[in-house]
């Protein structure tokens, strides 16, 4: 039996330390300014410039709030946010992104509560801190974004405020609606279908095409919608359409049920959110039918079982979710298909011109970021002590990533069986190397990357054949 880490209990909002805020910013003047502003509101503030140390502090201190800069060395704020959101010890800590970069607005879709652009105005900071703490207080509901006429917003707030814990924000046009969705965590969107300046179908389409907002619950309320318009709204992606006037109790019940149902559906999806086996097989068939050479890459996390045994399934699941998110980002960057077979086994399918850069980014990013899922003792030691299957206490290296890449030059005549078998055989070879590595082999005549030798760390170059 492995001795499981004692720090893996899930850190719920009511277990966070009240009035304690962790400020993470590598710029000392900015960190000092934020700390002073937050301390004026009666909070105790801990400031940290090193993002690696910040993760350890978040787990140890359990602050009720964390502010995070984006532009930091070694591990940027968005990467750090992925670690925090996927770690059961830190996933419930509300995070406010504070950055001069407009691109940081997308951090909300990755799990941040809100985005504040530098230079920070004290009033905006205080409002956001109050909203973050209120939204994460046990029993509180999510923000409802109400779009359209101001009179509609006032009516909704007046009708629903006595019945529920919802917080409300308003947007008079589609541009403002999208800005709020990007910068604030939203539980549902309530659209005023009768607003003359608000195109219902366009608004729904914008939300549904957002990728990270595609599952956001949407409800429309209007008194002049024809049956055809109602059908078009639903077909575009509206979850519910109500005819005005509405009873407050019914509107409240529908909104709550819509949010609960959406959350339930998201929870039963595969943990990674990546395409599964049917989609992987379909992509292989499509590539094979196209007649162009491609690479089928089997990715396996080394020493994952030991990590799971020692740190527990919750932490291990968080590490896999983090890896899945990393793969999704890099797949879009390099035009590579990625899928999840199950457990710690992932698949990448790419053209010959794309696999090198993708594999390099995956292995280097994995080695740089996955180490943040270890505690300080194991991280400094560089290994985990655990009992192996034979009952012997031994040292296991930290997690690494092995990539077995099969080059397919001709259409698959025997389906995917030979491809899967070749990948499994190559996987055993590459896993015998230490650290993160990639090994290549043609489907019929195995070849290996020339520069990869046992003991090499990371990806050492492109496609090479042994002499």
Query: Which spans have pLDDT < 50 for at least 5 consecutive residues?
Result: 6-12, 445-467
Largest sheet: 5 strands, parallel
**What's the arrangement of strands in the largest beta sheet?**
2-1-3-4-5
| Number of structural domains | 3
Task: Describe the overall structure.
It is a single chain. The chain has 467 residues and is an alpha/beta fold. The chain contains 15 helices and 17 strands. Strand 9, helix 8 and strand 10 (240-243) form a beta-alpha-beta unit. Helix 2 (51-61) packs parallel to helix 3 and helix 3 (77-86) runs antiparallel to helix 12 (313-334). The radius of gyration is 25 Å and the shape is globular. The two termini are 45 Å apart.
Spell out the key features of this protein:
467 residues, alpha/beta, Rossmann fold, Alpha-Beta Plaits, 3 domains, 41% helix, globular
Q: What does the secondary structure layout of this molecule look like, with pairings?
A:
Elements (H helix, E strand, L loop, with lengths): L16 E8 L3 H12 L4 E5 L2 H11 L1 E6 L8 H10 L8 E5 L14 E4 L4 H14 L7 E5 L2 H11 L6 E5 L2 H10 L4 E5 L7 H9 L9 E5 L4 H10 L3 E4 L4 H21 L8 H14 L3 E9 L1 H8 L1 H22 L2 E6 L2 E7 H18 L6 H6 L1 E5 L5 E5 L2 E9 L8 H14 L6 E6 L25
Parallel strand pairs: 1-2, 1-3, 3-4, 4-5, 6-7, 6-8, 8-9, 9-10, 16-17
Antiparallel strand pairs: 11-13, 11-16, 12-13, 14-15
Helix pairs in contact: 2-3, 3-12, 11-12, 12-13
Concise summary:
This protein is of the alpha/beta class. The protein contains 15 helices and 17 strands.
């Amino acid at each position: 039996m492995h001795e499981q880490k004692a720090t893996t209990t899930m850190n719920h909002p009511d277990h966070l330390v009240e009035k304690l805020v962790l400020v993470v910013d590598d710029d000392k003047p900015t960190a000092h300014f934020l700390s002073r502003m937050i301390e004026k509101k009666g909070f105790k503030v801990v400031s940290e410039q090193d993002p690696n140390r910040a993760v350890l502090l978040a787990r140890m201190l359990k602050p009720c709030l964390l502010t995070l800069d984006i532009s930091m060395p070694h591990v940027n704020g968005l990467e750090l946010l992925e670690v925090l959101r996927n770690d059961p010890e830190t996933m419930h800590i509300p995070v406010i992104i504070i950055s001069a970069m407009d691109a940081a607005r997308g951090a909300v879709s990755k799990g941040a509560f809100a985005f504040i652009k530098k230079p920070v105005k004290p009033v905006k900071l205080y409002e956001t801190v109050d909203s973050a703490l209120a939204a994460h207080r046990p029993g509180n509901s999510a923000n409802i974004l109400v779009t359209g006429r101001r009179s509609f917003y006032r009516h909704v707030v007046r009708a629903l405020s006595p019945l529920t814990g919802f917080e409300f924000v308003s947007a008079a046009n589609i541009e403002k609606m999208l800005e709020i969705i990007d910068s604030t965590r939203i539980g549902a969107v309530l659209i005023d279908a009768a607003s003359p300046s608000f195109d219902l179908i366009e608004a729904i389409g914008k939300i549904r095409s957002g990728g990270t907002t595609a599952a956001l619950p949407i409800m429309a309320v209007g008194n002049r919608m024809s049956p055809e318009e109602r059908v078009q709204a639903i077909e575009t992606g509206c979850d519910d359409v109500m005819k005005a006037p509405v009873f407050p109790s019914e509107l409240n019940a529908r909104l709550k049920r819509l949010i609960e149902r959406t959350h339930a559906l998201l929870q039963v999806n595969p943990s990674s959110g990546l395409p599964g086996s049917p989609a992987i097989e379909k992509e292989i068939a499509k590539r094979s039918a196209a007649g162009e050479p491609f690479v089928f890459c089997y990715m396996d996390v080394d020493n994952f079982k030991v990590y799971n045994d020692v740190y527990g399934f919750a932490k291990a699941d968080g590490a896999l979710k983090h890896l899945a998110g990393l793969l999704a980002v890099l797949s879009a960057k390099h035009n590579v298909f990625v899928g999840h077979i199950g457990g710690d086994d992932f698949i990448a399918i790419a053209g010959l011109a794309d696999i090198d850069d993708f594999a390099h980014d995956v292995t280097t990013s994995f080695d740089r970021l996955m180490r943040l899922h270890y505690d300080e003792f194991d991280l400094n030691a560089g290994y985990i002590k655990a009992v192996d299957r034979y009952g012997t206490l031994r040292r296991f290296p930290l997690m690494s990533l092995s990539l077995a890449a099969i080059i397919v030059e001709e259409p698959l005549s025997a389906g995917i069986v030979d491809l899967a078998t070749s990948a499994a055989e190559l996987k055993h070879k590459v896993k015998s190397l230490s650290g993160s590595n990639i090994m290549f082999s043609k489907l019929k005549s195995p070849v290996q990357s020339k520069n990869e030798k046992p003991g090499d760390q990371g990806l050492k170059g492109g496609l090479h054949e042994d002499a």
